[in-house]
Amino acid sequence: MNGQDLGLAAVARLAGVSTATVSNVLNRPHLVAPATQERVLAAIDELDFVPNRAAAALRKGTNRMLGLVIPDIVNPFYAAIVDAVVEAADRERYAVALCVSHEDPAREQRHFDMLAEQRAAGALVVPITADWSRLSQLRMVGAHLIAVDRRVDEAEACSVAIDDVHGGDIAVTHLLAIAGEGVVIVNGSRTIVQCEDRRAGARLALSRAGIEPDSLVELEVAEMTVEAGIAAGRRIAETGAPRRIFCTNDQLAIGVMRGLADSGLIVPDDAAVVGYGDLAFGNDEARRLTTVGQPKHEMGEVAVAKLLAELREGAAHQHSATTFQPHLVIRESTSR
Amino acid sequence: MNGQDLGLAAVARLAGVSTATVSNVLNRPHLVAPATQERVLAAIDELDFVPNRAAAALRKGTNRMLGLVIPDIVNPFYAAIVDAVVEAADRERYAVALCVSHEDPAREQRHFDMLAEQRAAGALVVPITADWSRLSQLRMVGAHLIAVDRRVDEAEACSVAIDDVHGGDIAVTHLLAIAGEGVVIVNGSRTIVQCEDRRAGARLALSRAGIEPDSLVELEVAEMTVEAGIAAGRRIAETGAPRRIFCTNDQLAIGVMRGLADSGLIVPDDAAVVGYGDLAFGNDEARRLTTVGQPKHEMGEVAVAKLLAELREGAAHQHSATTFQPHLVIRESTSR
DNA sequence: CTGTTAGCGCGTTCAA
DNA sequence: TTGAACGCGCTAACAG
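Structure tokens for the assembled complex are given below, as produced in the milestone run.
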């Protein structure tokens, strides 16, 4: 056990072969005679040889590493994506450089620069703005990019995203099957794409059911938090708004149920509530909430798969955009 | 804007200087005359030159990258640590290679191998076993290791950890100041170090108050979940156990409050409950829960600081173990 | 202050 | 099937 690091050469010397042969047993074992292989492996073991990826990266111009750029790691939605990506990458022996942009474009830019300098083979990115051109520097050095949780023109790049319109659709379609009149949506700002899409889906569901979409009662909240949900729930109870309620995330839904309870309205008896996200919070209210589940893990896995495919295919590669369909997770909050 | 990558040499040629000078303006600008610097920077800009870290890493034998090995990323406790680490590393222009061991030693080993091959400058690791010797391979290639959330002998390595004994102590000391008789602890398996430590702290608090530690009523649960907490809460209500309750994590505490409520016992009027962790769940029950807060962010930051210090100091470095003191976050669940 | 030079460890020709 | 030799892009001496 020595701490020195003489590289292939030392191994080659000990095994009585050339460095090329050592390199071959490591990377293209089929080209080396079994006997030689064994000798080399023994030498590697003997010397505790650890291949130097930096040298390989320099030589090959690309590194067995990929970047993952997300806006926030504490958010369980992104955490789930990170989990999936890291696992898929690990399976293929890729390192994952995690970058958290915190919604700061300058920081995001620095991350791209860094990944470019590392000669990362590619990057999975949840961009904080729609300005895809900022990603050009990564492109330049041959890195490949996949947009995650964002749909991007197939001329630009591969992307994976979740169909939020469909999510809103199935949520409200489900509500419409429950006895009652009218539907209310508790939504965040419509400037957020996801919020707008979920709303569009809700209206679509109404239309399909032969109901005027404008009859949808809309409650917009500034922050999509439990607190805002509570306030919304109270307002719904007080104003006699519809008792079939679609909340565009789970926190809002949990809050709404509380707000309703404050006014003596019990879910699901007096009202039906659907949330969105199906995030694993530590409480069991979430376990009672009917919600729209997103295939986060699958999205992460496919993102990695797309990236690796793009690397493999080279110039022949055709970008593709995959959209995942969310699914309804039916639980107590709508069981009447 | 070309996609080619001719390196320092191209920049040097365009700026009419040598490669060494270009390298200097990048890494030691103070050694270069301002005028020259400007010319070089202009050339860099002109060619969209992106330095190649792999080459630098090869040359220097170490990479501006550090590994972060954790058991689980979906767990908000680790997510918070990742957040802190990534931010601190980013500030120093270090890339962070995230590895998730999923409690699998073989996988953890692969991660270490990979980090060694990448010639990561160091790694922060939450080891899944106490077998510190397995980390020797990383050591060998000059990587430096910091143990996170684990206390390690200072002869071995630097470490950062949280004093769970103290956490149990302050939790129960707080409970003892509330009117009532006896204390019950709802705890996970004592084979888990954290659980055992929190219990020890609880007993310590009793002793200090002149109470026989064995009077502590102990409820052990198999899984530290909300469900288990509910069951425990019911049991407490039924058996007339003490109404001053210390739960060794927040999920248990939330469950206990529910279980008590099922039997008509209202917190804080009929019982006082303290949790542990102060994790940001999406519900506001957590916002009402008195709990033991852990300085997760600080721990992550200090871990990075220790690593960078170790890198800077070289052979002169003395390992150190820092223990963070948790603090009580007093909220409604104990306000009587 | 700047240029010259010599590798860092590896992968990949091309010959043998 | 194996070996010799070159160079990937950069940094660190050292010289000027």
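Residues 17 and 40 of chain A are 8 Å apart (CA to CA). Residues 296-313 of chain A form the longest helix (18 residues). Further analysis is deferred to the final report.
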